[in-house]
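pipeline: protein-struct stage 2 | run 1193 | Aldehyde dehydrogenase family protein
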Amino acid sequence: MHRNFIDGAWVEGSGVSKNINPSDVSDVIGEYTRADAAQTHDAIAAARAALPGWRVATPQQRADALDFVGTELLARRDELGRLLSREEGKILAEGTGEVVRAGQLFKFYAQEALRVAGDILPSLRTGVTVDVRYEPVGVVGLITPWNFPIAIPAWKAAPALAYGNTVVLKPAELTPALAWVMTEIISRSGIPAGVFNLVMGPGREVGNALAQSEGVDAVSFTGSVATGQTVREMVAGRGGRVQEEMGGKSPLVVLDDADLENAVGCAIGGSVISTGQRCTSNTRIIATPGIYDRLLEAMVDRCRGLRVGHALDAQSHLGPVVDERQFEVNESYLEIARNEGADVLCGGERVSRETDGFFMSPAVIGNANNTMRHVREEIFGPVVSVLKAGDYEEALAIANDSDLALSSGICTRSLKYAEDFKARSDSGMVMVNLPTAGVDYHVPFGGRKKSSYGTREQGRAAREFFTSSKTSYTLPL
């Protein structure tokens, strides 16, 4: 039994969930206890009690603890990569890569703990000095999704701890294993009891308790737009600080002058790879007339050559969909596309393998336009739609015509169009001749419109959310 972690102790909850391998539903990864609202409030109280000591811990103490976590994650990359692939369904190379990224994040923020800077400025008044310092915001609730079960907990928890906050983490109920492992490592890092707490369980109980509690100063959330809006209303309504990442429907513009092989790689690598279960996936491909037909044909050929299978099978290019419910959502959007008059040119079928899993062949949809529901709404599966635009200006207009604006991309040999797209794209992140999925941990991550709310995540931008500035004036007497 994998228990919750509260005030430095492993604690049983009010129920148990079985963690099932989506590549093989007969494989039970483990049993994980479920917290309820009362236990969540216990974790919040522990974090509140631990805050005075941790907020004044030396930068070296914080750095050493975070470096310890990062070092162990990297050392155990192969073991934990296999666990992640069993739990979430990413193929092994991606599962291992995600663990590596989590380790790198902890090591990055270990160094950031040593670089917390302030400013000393002259006042406009003679003899007065001004200093600006950055202090921890307080107790932070972290609510993380199932599709990146260790990278997203790491990129929230590491800066929160680096800047002196105490933490209550609620991972996705569907994928708790890697968050539990990360917590177990943190428990041995030298971080005092109560500074970091893990409460696993359903969002309607644990997540709501975090969002509504006056004992939580800030909440960082990653998940759906609808849930994010509910969380935001709860947190902001009581005066708390909130940061949210809530999905995308990222466009990839492909111009006539693009290198076809690179464009196909970007279109497929940024959409159906990882089973399409990334918020940054470029699921809207917008091509101009001179390349549209060739691109569409090449994408269909590429998808037909991809092998879908068990995440631990070295021959697999794609693993399974995360669970049956998501599989049914994907199927429903393919039916919606057909009813809207689009053409499902390949994929979308259930694939049979030696094990009983949620295997879906990647789907390419042609004859689509930006008014169609399947084009405008995030599907979160191995489904990509291809649209035609008359020229660059129309392609840019279609790309920007969305309520979601996380990431966007363009494939072109033209520096003129590349620079213009970077300047005029509405998205928070822009890629040139690259898939829209795939970002670095040392630079800001985030979108615009309904994709994001609040300050950016990752890199030094994380300081904006996890600290509060204090300006002091001094007149020596």
